[in-house]
């Protein structure tokens, strides 16, 4: 049985696209970068901690696998988490305006006996955003609960001049990488080679 260690409705929707049955586990895992911790290592660690905490909730269940994921916006090695309020969201968008940032999405799939990891790194280039556009976007409420203060699958999609990488990864769960992990664990059938 597969479990998703996430409160995110976006991750639930994305995982459902792979056609696999799963049950969600709601967890609150602290997301604090350690002193001196590299940004990419932080994203991987948080995803791993989510998966391991989820596994603790289903301990002893035969055949249980838990998927944990974390996605962060990174600019100049600074991790942009979820904004605290409207002012914080606007400040993030000002910093991202007219710049290219990285979105790192780490996925861990764990069981009692095995662990697998995959990482997706996308480059996202924002157009220049004026104050009125930033204020209008923040007023929609869409900025909240999302790393970097924006959701690429919503109104902020028009801010993106270029995306190199995974659209679903920027949303919060890179489907290509997740599909490969699930197949590696035997939770999805292997893909037949095309002759």
TrEMBL record:
Catalysed reaction equations from the record: UTP + H2O = UMP + diphosphate + H(+); dTTP + H2O = dTMP + diphosphate + H(+)
GO cellular component: cytoplasm
UniProt-listed CDD domains: Maf
Site entry: Important for substrate specificity: 10, 71, 153
Keyword match DNA damage: no
Entries under Pfam families matching the protein: Maf
Cofactors (names): a divalent metal cation
Chain's role: Nucleoside triphosphate pyrophosphatase that hydrolyzes dTTP and UTP. May have a dual role in cell division arrest and in preventing the incorporation of modified nucleotides into cellular nucleic acids.
Protein name per UniProt: dTTP/UTP pyrophosphatase
Organism, scientific name: Marilutibacter penaei
């Amino acid at each position: 049985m597969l479990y998703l260690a996430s409160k995110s409705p976006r991750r639930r929707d994305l995982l459902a696209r792979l056609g696999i049955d799963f049950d969600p586990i709601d967890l609150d895992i602290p997301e604090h970068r350690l002193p001196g911790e590299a940004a990419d290592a932080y994203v991987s660690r948080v995803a791993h901690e989510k998966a391991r905490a989820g596994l603790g909730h289903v301990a002893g269940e035969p055949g249980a696998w838990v998927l944990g994921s974390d996605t962060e916006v990174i600019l100049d090695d600074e991790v942009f988490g979820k904004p605290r309020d409207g002012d914080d969201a606007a400040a993030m968008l000002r910093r991202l305006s007219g710049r290219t940032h990285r979105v790192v999405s780490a996925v861990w799939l764990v069981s009692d006996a095995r662990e697998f990891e995959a990482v997706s790194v996308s480059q996202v280039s924002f157009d220049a955003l004026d104050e009125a556009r930033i204020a209008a976007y923040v007023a929609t409420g869409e900025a909240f609960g999302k790393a970097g203060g924006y959701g690429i699958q919503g109104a902020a999609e028009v801010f993106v001049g270029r995306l190199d990488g995974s659209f679903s990864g920027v949303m919060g769960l890179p489907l290509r990488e997740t599909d490969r992990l699930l197949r590696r664990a035997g939770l999805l059938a292997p893909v037949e080679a095309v002759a």
